[in-house]
Each structure stands twice: as C-alpha cells, then as structure tokens.
Records
---
Amino acid sequence: MVELPVVEGEVVPCCPPVTSAALSEADSVRMAAMFKALSDPVRLRLFSRVASHEGGEACVCDIQDVGVSQPTVSHHLKKLREAGLLSSQRRGTWVYYRVEPSVLAAMAGLLVGSR
Amino acid sequence: MVELPVVEGEVVPCCPPVTSAALSEADSVRMAAMFKALSDPVRLRLFSRVASHEGGEACVCDIQDVGVSQPTVSHHLKKLREAGLLSSQRRGTWVYYRVEPSVLAAMAGLLVGSR
C-alpha cells in the first residue's frame, strides 16, 4: 500500500518533481503507483465523481452510474483507497468516500514542482 | 495514440480538471492513457532522466542507466512518445528526446485546474 504523506493544511509531496532531478528507484516506485491508480478510465471517472461532488465527498450510492457492476465499483474504490487518493468512512448503511485536495495538489507538484 | 493538444506557448489541457465536473467517458479514456504512460517505475525514471536533463532534452545515449536492456529502454521511450509526453528527433547517430514543460503543466492542470 502506497500512501501520500498528507499533513493537515500542508502539501507534502512524497517525491521531488520529475523535472528537478533524476528520480531515485524508490521514489519512482511510489510515484508510479499513484499514477497507476488513475490509469484506468472507469477508476478515473469514479475518482472524478467523488472529487466533483459537493464538499469533495460522496456516498457510494451517488457514484455507481459509471456503467459497471457494483462489485467492479467496489474493486476500483478499494484500489483508489489503497493508493491514498481516497479515504472512506462508514456512516450507517453507506460508505462515504472523500478526496483530499492536498493529495491532488501533491500529485500535481510531482509534475511541475511546488506552487 | 493519445496526444495532448499542445499549442506553442500555451497550455491547453485536453480535459476539464477532475474536480470541476464529472468526467465524460471520452475524456476519461484520454486522461487515463496519459496517467498510464507514467504508471511504470522504469518508464517514469526514463521520463525523469529526460525532464531533468539540461534544456529538457536528452540523447538516448544519456538515459540508458536505469538497469534495463536497451530494447526495453526503446520500448518505454516509444510508449512515452505515443502518449504525447516526449517528442523525438534523430540527429546523426543518435535520437534525442524532449519533454515539453507545457505537457507537464497540462497534466497537472487536470488534477488541480489551470494556474
């Protein structure tokens, strides 16, 4: 399981931007895992459903309209959680998924440096 | 082959940021292909070798020290070129690879919006 180190209110990219220096082998493994989590169209649309939902949070019941079966939705959400891109919380019947803007900012920072 | 539409001096992301609205199926296919190109550690290190080289350009002879065979290096460079992340130019004996900063900025824009 690869997770981005997210500190409250701060953006802490795991790795130096790709343009600043040649990546180490260890950093390349971490970064590749993050990009891989977004490399499937259905997974990316599920992620987008959560990211664009009010407050950056969505009930799993809100984001099932991507044309695949419920077990497939669950599989993709698990992959996104394992990559540290989504967090989840059970409330009563439903599981809610949340994307932290700092994670997106950290990933963008890997491409173009900190802002 | 999926290419980012890069206009000279301008950043033109192919797709809306994931946080702005739920992605369409077509956009998700394009974006996923870009992320996929960076989802392999060796490919990411080759990309970083080029991105961090002087002037954002490197001879293929400069970037072979990533611990894989030369045919594997060629295979990964081809994938990066097909995804629109690198361009290449033959000069005499060697092929030179170049990364356009606007492509990195466009990818980052997909994650956090335009800057």
---
Amino acid sequence: MTMEAERTLGDEEVTRLGELAAQLRVDAIRCSTMAGSGHPTSSLSAADLMAVLIARHLRYDWVNPPTRANDHLIFSKGHASPLLYAILRAVGAISEQELMETYRQLGSRLQGHPTPALPWVDVATGSLGQGLPVGVGIALAGRYLDHLPFHVWALCGDSEMAEGSIWEALDKAGHYGLRNLTAIVDVNRLGQRGPTELEWDLDTYRRRVEAFGCRPIVVDGHDLVAIDEAFGQAREATGPTVVLARTVKGKGVPEVENKPGWHGKPLKPDVAEQAVRALGGVRQIRVTGPRPEPVPAAGKPSAPQPPELPEYEKGALVATRNAYGDALRALGSRPDVVALDGEVSDSTRADKFGEAYPDRFFEMFISEQQLVAAAVGLQVRGYRPFAATFAAFLSRAYDFIRMAAISRADIALSGSHAGVEIGADGPSQMGLEDLAALRAVQGSTVLYPSDAVSCAALVAQMVDRKGIAYLRTTRGKYPVLYDNGDDFPIGGSKLLRAGKDDDVALIGAGVTVHNCLAAADELAREGITARVIDLYSVKPLDRQRLLDAVRDTGGRLVVVEDHYPEGGLGSAVLESLADLAEPVRVNHLAVRGLPTSGTSTQLMDQAGIGVHAIVTAARALC
Amino acid sequence: MTMEAERTLGDEEVTRLGELAAQLRVDAIRCSTMAGSGHPTSSLSAADLMAVLIARHLRYDWVNPPTRANDHLIFSKGHASPLLYAILRAVGAISEQELMETYRQLGSRLQGHPTPALPWVDVATGSLGQGLPVGVGIALAGRYLDHLPFHVWALCGDSEMAEGSIWEALDKAGHYGLRNLTAIVDVNRLGQRGPTELEWDLDTYRRRVEAFGCRPIVVDGHDLVAIDEAFGQAREATGPTVVLARTVKGKGVPEVENKPGWHGKPLKPDVAEQAVRALGGVRQIRVTGPRPEPVPAAGKPSAPQPPELPEYEKGALVATRNAYGDALRALGSRPDVVALDGEVSDSTRADKFGEAYPDRFFEMFISEQQLVAAAVGLQVRGYRPFAATFAAFLSRAYDFIRMAAISRADIALSGSHAGVEIGADGPSQMGLEDLAALRAVQGSTVLYPSDAVSCAALVAQMVDRKGIAYLRTTRGKYPVLYDNGDDFPIGGSKLLRAGKDDDVALIGAGVTVHNCLAAADELAREGITARVIDLYSVKPLDRQRLLDAVRDTGGRLVVVEDHYPEGGLGSAVLESLADLAEPVRVNHLAVRGLPTSGTSTQLMDQAGIGVHAIVTAARALC
C-alpha cells in the first residue's frame, strides 16, 4: 500500500486507510493480550490518526532510520506502545513474530513503553508530558541548525495536557516559530482513573493552544478524510500546529469503547479474539508511506580540533562558573556544540558562548523542564548540547533528566551556585541535593571542580561523554590551584598534598578543596600531616586514590562537602570503600541543618564544613 | 494611615497611597544597598501594586498572623524580598532597625528570599513558579474545607510565567473555581539577563489566562486608582482572577528604570542616597489596612482518636500500596487529614480515601508539581495532606519538595510502583532514584515498608510527622510478615531472623526483605546462619541495629535494594557506620544497569537483587 499526501484522498484510499487502521487496532489488541499487560484502549483511540500519518504524511525511510531528512515521530503518550509497535510491523520494520512473541518480555526491545532500544524511537517516553518538549528540541535543530525539511510529529494524550511541561513546550514552539512541529492530541476523554479534566472540551484546548502561539486544528479523530486534511495543513503551516483530535478510547471494540476502568488493561483472550474478528481479523498489510525529500548528504565532519582551552594564572581568583563559560566558548569551535540556558546565563556564564555563537545558543527562559528536554532533542539530531541553570533549579527538571538517561541521551548539564557558598541569597537558591540526585541518575557522570583550570579541562571532556554529564560550579572566586595543561581525567582525582606518613586524608571537591588546603596548613602547624585529595570526579570516583589514602593513613579520612549529608560526596566515598576488609573511619562533614543567608565563610563555618571544622575533625581522628 | 476598600478612592487617598508606595521604594532601596545585595529593581516595579493591596485590600491582622480569617499574601517572586520586608515595616510588623541592620545577614529572619522564619510568610519562595501553585492549595482549603472568606493574593513576576507550573496552577484554579485566589503579575518586561519572552505583550498574557479558566484584569501597575479598582474586582469576582499589571522595572529611579543589567543588583550607596532623596526621603508611615472579617473561632479540635488501622492476616498476599490506601482511609476519621493524587489513585490506592471522604480528596490530574504544591498549601491552613503518585513521577516535583522542606512544610508523600519490581511497564515507570532524592531533602523522613502491617503502622505515624515524610510502596503482592499491632517506630527496624552467632546480616527494605528471607533459608541449608534486618525506616536509620549486626557478625553485611546503587539504602547504611573503628565489609546489591521490561522476579534476578544474588553475596563474605 503506497499513498502520497499530494493526491486527493479518494474513496479507495479511504477504504485502504481504514483497513490499515483496523490492522493497527487488531495488532495492538493481540500483542497486549498476548503479553497480559499494556494499554490497548489508549492505542485504539489513536489508530486512525496514526494510520493516516504513516501512510500519507510521515516522510520516513524505515529501512534507514538515521536518514537525515527523515521526519520524527514521538509517542509522547508512551503507554500507547502497542500502537507504535503495530505501526512498526505495518511498515515492515519488525516482524509479526517479534510483535506477538516478545512484547513486554524480558530481553525484548519492544518494552512496555518505547525506548531507543528501537532504532525508530528517538527517546524514551512513558513519563507524560515529555515527548512533546523533546520534539521542540528536535524541531529547533531542524529549523535553526540542520536547515532540513523534516517534520516532527508528537502524539500526545489528553491527560498529559495537564502537565505544565506541555505548555512550556507549546510556548517555546510558538516563540521559536517551529512550523516543523505538530502535536497530535488524542483527546479520548478518559485518563487512567476516570475522565480527564477537560474531557471533550475541544474548544478550551483550542483557545489554550492558540494563546500559546500555536495553530490549533480541531478534527474528528476517526474521520480519515478530516485527519488527512489536518495533517496536510499542519505540514504546510507557517507556525507550529496542534491537531486536536476528538477520539473515543477503545474505539473499535464496543465492549470497552468510551468506558472508564479500561486504562492499561489488556482484553481477556476471549474478548480479544472476538474483537479481532469483529475488526475483520488479522491482516498482512504492508504500508509504504512517503519518503523523505532527498537532501544533500551531510558534509563529512572534519575531525574536531582540540579546543584552545582558556588559561588561568595560578593563584588568580576565578569562579568555576566563569571557567565553564570560557571553556564552553572555546568548545564552540566545534560546530556540533550548542548551548542552552534558563534565563540566567549571566549567572551560569553560558552567556560567554551565547555572545560568541548566537546561532547555536538557545534561550529557554525560566522553564527548566523545557531546557533539559530541548537539550535531549538537540542530541537526537547529533548535536552536543550544554544546558545550564542554577544547580538548585535543575531539580525542577529531575524527571526529565531521569528519562534522558533511559533515552541514552548524551547531554551536558551545568548547575551553578552550588551549596551554602552562594551566601546571602539563602537556601532557595542553593544546590544542596544535586550531587545525590544526579549521582542516582543511571549511567551519569558527576563532576565538581575546585578551580578554573580543572573546570575548563572537565568541560572539554564533557563534550564527548556518553550519558548525562553533570558539572557543578561555584558562585564565588577561588584561587587557581593547577597548571594550565594539567590532566584531569574523568574518574581521576588530584593529590594536592601527600606524603607516605600522612596522618589523615582530607577529601573535598569544589569549594571545600580550598577549605581542606587551609585546614592542612593549620594541622601542619600542630604537627599533623594531612593529605589533601581533590575528588573533582564524584562519579565515577577514583577508588585507587582512596585505597592509597586508606593504606597510608591507617584509614583516617575526613570527607567534607557543601551538600546535604545524604547521597553526596561522602556517600560516594563510602560506597566506593564499602567492601574493604581493613577498617576505615570516615569523619563526614556536610550541611546538616537548614541554611540561611550570610556570607560564604559564615555559612560554611556555620554548617561545619569550614576550615575550623575540618581541623577539628582531623584532630579527632588522629 | 487607615483606608477601607469600601470607600471610593479620593484624591487625598491617592496621595497617601503614593506616599506609602514611595516609602516602600525608599526602604527597598535602602535595605538592599545596606546589605550590598538583593533585588531592588524587582521591588520598585511592584511597589504601587503592594501599596494599594496592603492599605486597602489585604484583610490582615498583622499582630496575629495565625488569625483564621487573615488573607494570605505570597511573594511568588521571592526575590522581591526588599519590598516584602518594606511592607512588614510599613505595617509595624518589624522595626526599621531590623530591616536596615539585618537584611540578608547571618542569623536574620529577613533572608535573601522569604522563608517562614517570619510569621507573616506562609512558605519559602525563590524558586520561581512555586508561590502561585502553593496559593492554589491555600485557596482550596479556604473554599472547600475552611469555608472562610479569606483571599489569597500571590505576587508573581513575569519571568516566572514561563514556568509550566504557573499554568498547572491557573488550570487548577479555574477547574476548582477558586474565586478566593488572585495572582498579581508584575509585568516589568525585564528578566534577569534581558527582556522576558513576552515583554509587555499584555494581550497574550490575557488570552492565556482566560483560556486557562481565570479572569484577567489588565491594568497600568503604576496607576493607583486603576490598581485599586482591579483588586476590588478581583475580590468580588466569581472565579479566580489574574491582575496583569504593566509595570516598569526600577520604577521611581530614573538611573535604572526599564534598563537591562540591573536585575539583582543593589544601587551603589551614592546612587541610592540620591534616589531616596528624589523619592522624598525616608518616611515613617504606618499603615493599617483592612482587618479580616470576624469569623467564629475554630471549634477546639478534639484530641484525635487513634485510627482503627486495617488488619491483615499473616502470610496473606497484600501489596503495600493497598495498605497505604487502607491506612489512609482509616486516618480519614481525623478531619484534618486530606489526600491528593495525580490521576493515578487506582494505582497508588489513594482512591480508597477518595471514595470514603470525597470532600477531602483533591484530584490534581497529571500535574505532579501542582500536586505537591497543593499539599504544601493545605498544610499552611493546618491540614495534614497525603499526596500520592508513582515514585518515579514524584521526581517531576523534586524542586517543589526541596522548597517545601525550606518552607518547613509538614507533608506526607507516597510513591508507589518502586523499583524494577513493577515488571513489564519498563524503566520509565520505575522509581529507582527516589530514595536518594528524598533522603537528600533537608529534614526528611523516608520509609519503605516490606509488608502491609508495617506499612499501615507507618502511614499512621506520618500524619503527625514534621517535615517531608516519604513512603515508598510496592506494586506487587507479598506475604504479610508481621502481627497486627506490632510496633514500627520511625527510626526503628525489625529483626526477622537473628542469633548471637550469625555469620552474616542480610539487610533489606521493602520488596528485598522478602528476597533476604528466602536467601536466609537457602543459606541455612548450606550451614550459613544469616540475620535478616528489615530497615523499613531508611531515614532516620536504626544505627543501633546495625551496630549490633556488625558486632555479632564480625562486620559482614549484605545490603540489598531495589534502587540504583547511589544514595539509597546502601548509602544510608554506610553513612550510618562511617565513623566506626572496627572493620565492616558491606556487599551492596543494587540495580546497576538500565532495566527493561520483564516479570518482577526476572528483573530482580537480572539486576542482581534476587534471592540467588543475595545468597552468593553472603557466601562471598563468609
């Protein structure tokens, strides 16, 4: 079956589209019943929409999913995975056998919710309200960087329209004039536990979408001709579009149509069998939709030159957030590096990149969820995004970071203004749980440099790092500790003071490294020799360095961090040494109370992570 | 100065309001210049709005902030704290000396951003887009629970209108018909690093607000008469209102008026002095605004009866999420207990409460940020909210939970569907970083029961717990392990198997307790005696129990958790034993790879947290 969007939709085509939709329904029912779990009713409501899309509008080379000009199809309502996988069978991407035998089984790439284990899936979905925001990032790449005619189609559920992130996405789509983006909202009126907030109030959806700068197109989501016209209009529109499709949940199976209590429930085998029969039985339709426009092959990227990293004078006072900006600007010599910020680039110092490379800098305003989602979308298109905001405010996007890890996205995040060190602004602005949160992200890298030289060197490595790479930077200015050109491998550490006979090891990262150095000086005056370790790589951690310290000091460690006590640097050290046979005593200094306003020094002292506290802790161990 | 909203605003009153606004401006300038930091320009834009509000519309007894019928004033744009504190001086709540000498200083309650260290401040703000959502919770209490005529006024910045959470809030305000809620948006056109997305496009704001079910009232934010009319209309409106005020950032100080580059910067002393002079100098106006309507005193609450907790048969298969619902329903006998859910109450089993107490159950649909914010607002009014969604999706509200801790809010959160145990739905639905994230919240409590009896007992204690109390529940059904009526103190643990000569201790929580028990049985057949500890209280942790285990087993511990390896149960155990002098060897089993779909048992086995892995780990230690 081949259809072209250019032709008018005749009766025959309508019949064939109806057959295709029936096959999608049948397959969605069959695979979920076979698996004994899944969301058939949420798939049935969108089957007509997707049949028209893949047969006539989605320009996609299914054999070569990385094709540069391929459209992108994102199931923002990831729970409709039976429908997505039914599509994959219909286009010949997967076999009927794979669909029927492996859906939701251990080891299958046809997981309960879509993940990029499938080459046709850009990002993992299943946490609602994320697919469309990621689509915004892909569309940004298409319009502003790739200059390619691909279109991004995001299938959304109506329940997820209650997520603020959807409105962040539509707002940005409007702001950036993303005519290459279409959200298709499957308004089937029923959420998981009952009616959605707006049910079939399409007019309210329409007014909201319009007010947010997108063009709404309201259709009957089961009228194939109307759907076809809507998608045609969406492709030709001069701005972002939202197809608001009134649909019926469970459409095609009278037993469950428009009935609550059927969310996420497969049909029982006998009901399924009857439904499949009523829908005309199993089909073997193979659809070939439109192909992407031929576009020139991408120029072979020249091997990236090592960036000319900024240099700093040893001892000079430089904030690591400034070094982030400097290094990011230096990385800008690579055309695949892009930067984003949440309207605080003069604080995170991402503005240095923005000024040098305005075409590759995306201002996401105060919408941290969209900030991270756009970064994920940009890396789908092969870019290397660096997204920055205050460390504290990355917590706003934690679910997006979590999902980005499941998407196997490669993104760099920079969180500035970490810890009580920020001073007078008070606890709302202090990142104090970010190390715990970011460490717990699957496959993440967590970096926390103490000076400008190490910061720049780490930023340079983040650009090619796999997974979620997080950099924690400090607000205040501290002395440059290292020589330009020093090595700071991820997973490494630095010994700032060391001898074979050290009495104790002082272990810090970021700002507390400076406190450790001062404490070591003070301890030396008391005759206690303290090793000082800069654990700039919090994850992965330099275990060998810790083992050496345990061996040389008799297991006397002071770990000090500008972070709450749980899950941060101290935990990282303890986890790393958990299985050690010899005794290790760790005196762990962290921010245990709720901080207030004050100066950096006052607050670090008050929290017990200042010089005096480190001296006392070391003394107690010796 | 006393004015009443009932009177028409005459010339004399306008003059006096102008004087009050000038005093607010002068004080905001003075205190931030004195502190050397702060946000005067963001305060100047809203001074006229606030002068009219406090003098004529905010019904508030400043001497008795807990007065039941007091209005609520929330600075959602918390960075305008100089203006808030200038108000507090103008109403006589704080002295000029406190304002001038302590703002942003260590130990002061006048912190960089407002916190409830001040009795007139309901919640901490400073992470944008949170004050209004919390206001929705307060207004829900006013309209549906208190039935009191107070009004909630939230001063918002225009930058924060880009946060999706603002639209979640307005959506819920409209949905619940919160006529007692008014957002006042200070549209001063300039964000931190430059123009806002919409600048002075008041018409777009108007259309958005209207589409989200609220009544927009557009005014010139420096026209005192217009402002007064707008607030009068807001108070009398039949639904939620949004006063969209076009303002000028830095208004009143020509050097900075409407100029970028002045966000978050105090005026230099000489500029400040000149500005104060131009504004007419320091004033000593004391304003008394309208008082709250007299309302009947609250009935003295009867001492809450201990709830009749659900009982379970030992050995019966019960999911802890079901026990959550059962216990919550039992707690419903207390009239201050309220419950909220994010449209998944049939999964979290909050529906059990919702069915029994529909008047105290708030459906927040799929908007987890608003879910948590509403809980925070409800506890402002003295209620004991329980908010539930999937553990994975609480990550969506992490910034709100972080801020709730700074607000010293007492809320209970329930995250269901924890870990790989959920099975076929796949990683997007699995809470696998929640223990790390929630443990890192300041002052939090983290509970993870293994069976229905302990779960119910813990839920009963959460109701009076201070701070953020998090309960992690499991999807599947597991045997009841404990006797009804057993004690499960927060901070405690349970010994399920123990002897003086135990070779090793198996430590689990939640679902892994069951795996530990099975492993102990298997180990016993090999002649290895294993202690089994149920660490149902992950924070605070039962350190003594661990010390006993270390002593009795020679420091051989296996910790097993259905969570990523960083920051969870294993870290909690290690942190607790960090300073121990004797050797402890911990074999830490956790979910190290990215999970997929599968059955519970398959996935636990694959992750290395199943019975076989525990046996192997214990054997390796012995």
